[in-house]
Amino acid sequence: MLIRELIVENFMSYEYARVPFKQGVNVIGGPNGAGKSSLLLAISVGLGQTSTERSRKLSDLIRWGQDQARVTLILDNTKQGSRRPEPKYNKDQLFLTRILRRDGKYWFELENHVASKQDVERFLGKFGVDPDNMLIIMHQNMVEQFSVLSNIDKLRMVEEAVGLESFRENVVAAKTKLTRILTQEESVGKLLEQAEQTLNYWREQYEKFQEKKQLQLKRRFLDRELVWAEVERREGIVKGLQANFNRTQQTLGKIEDERHALIGEMDGQRVEQQTLKDELKLMFEERLGLERKAAQNQSQLSLAEQLLFEAEHLESITDISQFKLLRPESLREMLEISQQQIEKATKQIAANKTVMQRLEESTNKITVGAFDKRIALALLDFKRERAAKEQETTEKSLKEAQENLNSALAKAQTTGERIAVVKSANEIQAEMGLTDGHLVALSGVSEEIERQYESYSKLYFELKEKVRLVAENREKTLEEVKIRMAAWRSVMEQLLDRVNLEYQRIMSQTLATGEVQLSNVQDITVAGLDIYVGFKGSRPVALDAYTQSGGERTTATMGFLLALQQHVRSPFRAVDEYDIHMDPKNREMIAKVLVAMIKDATSQYVVITPSQITFVQQDANVITVQSLEGKSLVREVVK
C-alpha cells in the first residue's frame, strides 16, 4: 500500500476533502460531474505529474475564485519486514504536499520541508512508483489510448512497469557502444596507414638532429623547472593565509554556536517570564476577590457588633423576644461567623501574598538573567564583527595570493606536468644560459625535422596501439551484445509466458480468446508486444483502434493489465472509468477478477467508475462522491 489518505484544498470542484484509502481495491464512484476523476487527478499532481488531460497549466486546477490549491498525500512508510520503504524517516506516515498558485508557482513539501521535483522522484523511486507510466496511473481515455499504442511502445511501457527496463537499457547501450567502436576502428585504420607512410620519410632524417634534440629537451625541462619553482613559492604563501583563514572561520563558527545557544536560552526565558506574569495576574485577581470578601465580612462584623450593642440596650427597656434577628444570641452567632470568615480570608490573603512575592522574585530573577544574557549577546556580536573583519581581510589577501598562484600554475601547466624542483631559481637560470650557448652553435640545424619526426612517431605508435585496443573492444562488445540480448529475451519471454496464461484465463471468463506474444525479438529496437483477442467465437486478431468495438478494446486491455498485475513492481495503481464502454457482464467480471487478484497482495488499487454497484458485493473499499451546489463532497465511505 502507498497512500493512506488524500487531502485536497481548493482543488478543482473541492473546497476541502479527506479521502482515506485502504490496501487492496479502492473504488471511487458517483454520478458524472461529481468530482471522481478530480481525486485521481489530485493524486497524480501530488505524485509529481506536470501535465494533465484536464488542463495545460496546473494553475487551471485551482478552484475558481481561489489563489492557491493544496494536495497532500499521507504515504504509508510502515516497515516491510525489517525495513521501511524510506528508512530516512523513522515514521509510519509521511506527508507529501504539492502547492499550486494562481501566479504559476508550484512547489513540493516533504514532511513540511520544501523539496525539489528531483527529490520527490528519488523519494517515490524508493517506493517503486513512477506516476508517469501509463500502466501505473491511467487517466480518462488512457485505457483506450493504450490499445492504440504501437507494439513497440506497449512493450517498453510493460518493461518499465515491471522493472525490466534495465535489460533493454543494457542491450541498447552495448549496441550503441559497438556502433561507435566499428566507426572508430575504420577511422583509426585509415589514419594508421597514412601515419606509417609519413613516418618512414622522417625516420631517414632523424639521426641528423639527435644532438640538437637532446639539447632542446634539456632546455624545455629547465623552463618547466623554473616556472614550477615559482609555483612552489606561491603555494607556500597561500598555505599560510589559508591556515589563518581557517582559524578565523573556526572562531566565527564557535561564536555563532554560542549566539544560537544564548538566543535559545533568551527565548526560553521570555516564555518562562510570560508564564510567571500570567500566574501573577491570576494571583492578583484572586487577591482582589479575597480582599473584597474580607471587606464584606468586616462590614458584616461591624454591623453585628452595633446591632448586638443596641439589642442589649433595648432588652433592658422592652421585650424584644418577638424580634428573632435582634436576639443577642443570634447576633453573637452572626458575629462569630463573620470573625471566622475574616480570619479565613486573612489567611488566604497571606498565602496569596507569599505566592505573589515568590512569583515577583522569580520574575525579577529572570529579568536580571535576561539583562546579563543581552550583555553577553552584545559582546558576542562585537567579537563576531571583529572576527568577520579579520576574516574579510585574510580572505582578500588569500584571494589575491590564490589568483597569483593560479596565474603561475596556469603558466607552469602550459609547459607540462608538474615536476619536483631540487634546484634554486638562480641555479636553473645559470644552467639555461649554458644550454642556450650550445644551441646557438647548432642554429643552422632545422628543428622542423625533429618536430615532425617526434610528432609522427608518437602518432604512429598511438594509432597502432589504438587499433589493437579497438579490435579487442569490438570482439568484447560483440559478445556483450549477444549476452545482453539473450538475457533480455529470456526475461521477457518468461514474463510474457506467465502473463499470456493469465490473460487467456481472464479472457475466457468473457467468452473470448486471446494471446500475448513477443515479436521481432532479433532486433530490440523494433521488438514489440502483440496482444490478440477474439470475441464471440471469432479468431483472435491484433488489438487496435479499428477492429474491435470500444467495449471490446477496454475489456481486452483491462484483461491484459490484470494479467500483468502480479508482475508490476509499483505498490500503487489507478485507472479512471475503464468500464465506461463495457457491457454489464464484462464490467462485473473485470471487477471480480480485479478484487480477487489484489486481495492477497500488498498493493493498492484505485478505480474510478460511475458504476460502483459492481464493486458493492466485492471485498473493496467503496468511496462515494457527490456534487452539491457546485462543490464536490465525499459523502460516504463503505468499508
Q: What's the total helix number?
A: 12
- How many DSSP-defined strands? 15
* Main sheet: strands, sense, barrel: 6 strands, antiparallel
Q: What is the H/E order?
A: EEEHEEEEHEHHHHHHHEEEHEHEHEE
Percent of residues in helices comes to 55-70%
State the end-to-end distance: 16 Å
* Average residue-wise pLDDT: 83
Q: Taking Cα atoms only, what radius of gyration do you get, to the nearest Å?
A: 44 Å
* Strand line-up of the largest beta sheet: 2-1-4-5-6-7
Derived structural class: alpha/beta
Question: What's the assembly state of these chains?
Answer: single chain
Low-pLDDT residue spans: none
Strand content: 5-15%
Gross morphology: flat
Structure description:
The chain is α/β, with parallel strands linked by helices. Helices cover 61% and strands 15% of the residues. It contains 12 helices and 15 strands. The strands form 3 sheets. Strands 2-1-4-5-6-7 form a 6-stranded antiparallel beta sheet. Strands 8-12-13-3-14-15 form a 6-stranded mixed beta sheet. β6 (106-110) and β7 (113-115) form a beta hairpin. α5 packs antiparallel against α9 (447-508) and α9 (447-508) crosses α10 (550-564). The longest helix has 106 residues, at 210-315.
